Amino acid sequence: MNKALIAKGATLIISAAVFLSALPFSAFAESVSMTNAVRSLESDIAVPDNQISTDNYKDTRFNNPISPDFFCADPTAVEYNGRLYVYGTNDHQQFEAAGPDVDNTYEKIKSLLVFSTEDMVNWTYHGEINVGKIAPWISASWAPSIVSREEADGRTHFYLYFSNSGIGTGVITSTDPVTGWTDPLGHCLVTSNTPGLGDCPNPFDPGAVIDDNGVGWLSFGAGTASNGTDYMPGSVRIVRLGDDMISFDSDFRQIPAPYSFEASELNYINGTYVYTYCSDWNNHSEKWDFDCPAPGGCSMVYMTTKTPLDPTSWKMMGECFRQPGEVGFDYSNNHTHMHKFKGKWYMFYHTLMLKHGMGITGGYRSMGVDEIEVDEKNVVIKDTGGTKKGASQNGMFSPYVEHSAAELAGTAQIDYDMTNPYAPIVSAKQNGSWTAVRGVQFTESENSSQPAVSELVKMNIDTIQYNLTVTSIESPSTITMYASAQNGVKNEKSVEVTGKGKYKVTVDMNDAKGFQIVGCFTASNDTPVTLEVDSITLNGKYNIAVAAELTNTREWADGLRNIWNGFSDGDAVYTDDYAVLKYVKADNAIELFASENTGNADNAPLVENPLAFVSSVKGKGSIEVRLDEPAGELLTRIAFDSPNSFTNIYSDSISNIGGTHDLYFVYSDKGVSMQFWKFEESDEVSDRLMGDVNADGKFNISDVVVLQKWILAIPDVNLADWKAADLNKNNRLDIADFCLMKEKLLGEN
Which end is more exposed in the chain, N or C (fewer Cβ atoms within 10 Å of the end residue's Cβ)? Predict the structure, then answer.
């Protein structure tokens, strides 16, 4: 709304000191409540849509990668008090030290990152474990593997094994999953010089597990032994750990893993030990002596046994997770962790997905997770690959309990204060920064089963929009995108590109039946350009993820997929939930099949009682709560003036909300910060007489007249209580509210 409304009386903001110790989530008392908060300052000045940041590195449609801001790889995980804690190699440390557009060579990395979740889509960033400070003797810290157990003192003890570069494997311990880590040994747990190890050139990439008998096991090893071959490198080892988990209680034994490269992992399922590793880049079909298909290059392979110290007992089971480059990501190294959480099995892994969103060329990795199928009875893992969409939400995300502001699914231009890793503070880098949470359930759907997506039907193509991120360009240029229809007609549209950044180009396809070429580009004056096609939007409705790098600096690298790529009839070329581009042999074309229903209707009721949004905030400005997208419908806002300390603020009452929504918290000004938030029932709805805009305690014709004058922008007309006129309950005033006010007055008379 263009016209500012100023309340008659200034609201007094009472600063409250917030003390939060570094305790697990369950230990926190609820510190955000209307009982210890003050009402929001009156403000109706919304953040303009064109000022809401679009500089988000993670696509708002997807749950992968886990972190929208930090590069992290080589995942491992442990469950504690109902939360899943995930750890990984801190590629972000290398990124910050070496720069965005150089190869990731890992040598700067001496820390690990920690995240946690309760629902697999909203993740809390807990900061880094500074292994270099905890264990100053290390060369680097990569590829962790964590286990935990309750011990005689009644506490849960965590054992975090890590790669000390390629030299060996180290271990640190704690009684907390995030803080308090110590170095129990002062040196590596194992190196190539460890007595009894044998010929293991690189005893790194540990994989640990504790079996049902409480016995700990450790696997590790890479490189080729002196008597090894490409087919059987001979460097993988397994050992039983001592009772203290930091010593050994058996001889080292070899796991005969063909084409082993790196990334050891251990699981224990139904009395069976499962060893997972990353294969090398060789063509494995040339020699493969097992009753299962040969795995692809740099894919994850698994073996099983009941007796892990008997090398002859290990059974080859085959590939369980594909190379990222085979499933729509960049080709990269591969490292996974398999974990069961809340009744479902998940595969954690890494890709180069986030770097494309950031628009850089350095090989920095980001962790993702997808649900997988595991036959526990027969210990069989279904071969699958990663997706951009990622895992679905597992469990309800309630708005009625306190949440950390750093528990999130997406961000744009946000800073973190990690003084307390259990209570991080997020702050806006600029006007219009935002954070987001996924799947917030205000009320439950009246029907437990949601309507299914309608059948995919063939559709003609009116337009194709290319959503681009230019990652490299030597000088300003005109980029032209081309799409060739099934009849060979080439359609095109151009955009002026001044530098790196995001651009959109929409090509009119003139109701084409399909494509020969989904897209390619040229640059004026043959300017060298590298760009990422993040996604394509067909007919203004169907958005399909692509994440393909195009460049004119290499031959045959300037186009998307086409009919000459060797597709078989019915093959999916690009796909999403509600649409697929499919090759149709009879037409020799790539055609669109899509659902006319692109989403489930939310038939959930509105909340029964009015709610208030309550948050612990700092700064001068406002935080808006928007629905389902950064510039989505405004649900509510809080405004505050507390530049020096955190203050609990609550919003006006809201009742026009129900069902499940993604929430976007949009920050009005640089430096505005949030630490916690929640919604709770508000008892203030009776304080306002709806319609009484002049705040005289009565609703009559004079209120209607004042609102009419205000809408007509008559000078010097002010509304004492503009919220009383918001009968449409959308946090803005317009002619619809005026009409409702007249109806209300006539009804009461």
Answer: C
Chain segment 441-461, per-residue pLDDT in tens: 999 976 544 444 568 999 999
Tally helices (H) and strands (E) across the chain. Answer: 5, 43
What is residue 214's DSSP assignment?
Answer: S
Instruction: Determine the Cα angle at 367 with ends 623 and 282, to 5°.
Output: 160
Nearest to 109 by CA among 77, 140, 67, 85: 140
Rounded to whole angstroms, the Cα distance separating 207 from 300 reads: 14
Q: How far is CA 570 from CA 101, 102, 123, 560, 581, in A?
A: 39, 40, 37, 18, 10
- Active-site residue, from 74, 119, 265, 721: 74
In DSSP terms, 349 is beta-bridged to 368
Looking up tokens 């469990």, which residue turns up? 395
Exposure of 502 in the CB half-sphere (CA atoms within 13 A): 13
> Model-level pTM?
0.79
Cis-peptide into 65, omega within 30 deg: yes
Q: Please state, in angstroms and rounded to a whole number, the distance separating the CA atoms of residues 427 and 55.
A: 15
E strand spans, 559-690: 572-575, 579-584, 589-594, 611-627, 633-650, 660-667, 673-681
Interval 528-550 mean pLDDT: 90
3-state secondary structure of 115: strand
Whether residue 633 lies in the annotated active site: no
Select which of 44, 262, 383, 652 is catalytic: 262
For residue range 463-488, what is the model confidence (pLDDT) as tens digits?
999 999 898 899 999 999 999 999 99
Q: Tokens at residue 670, please?
A: 């640089």
392 CB neighbour count, 10 Å cutoff: 13
Question: What burial class does residue 447 get, using C-beta atoms within 10 Å of its C-beta: 0-12 exposed, 13-18 middle, 19+ buried?
Answer: exposed
Q: Which of 129, 123, 132, 133 is nearest to 146 (CA)?
A: 129
CA torsion sign, 172 to 175 to 180 to 182?
negative
| Distances 44 to 111, 617, 678, 740 between C-alpha atoms, Å | 45, 18, 21, 20
Phi, psi of 564 (to 5 degrees): -95, 10
8-state DSSP, 604? P
Per-residue model confidence as pLDDT tens digits over 568-627: 999 989 988 789 999 999 999 999 999 887 554 457 899 999 999 999 999 999 999 999
Tell me the C-alpha distance between 202 and 209, whole Å. Answer: 20
CA distance 428 to 669: 7
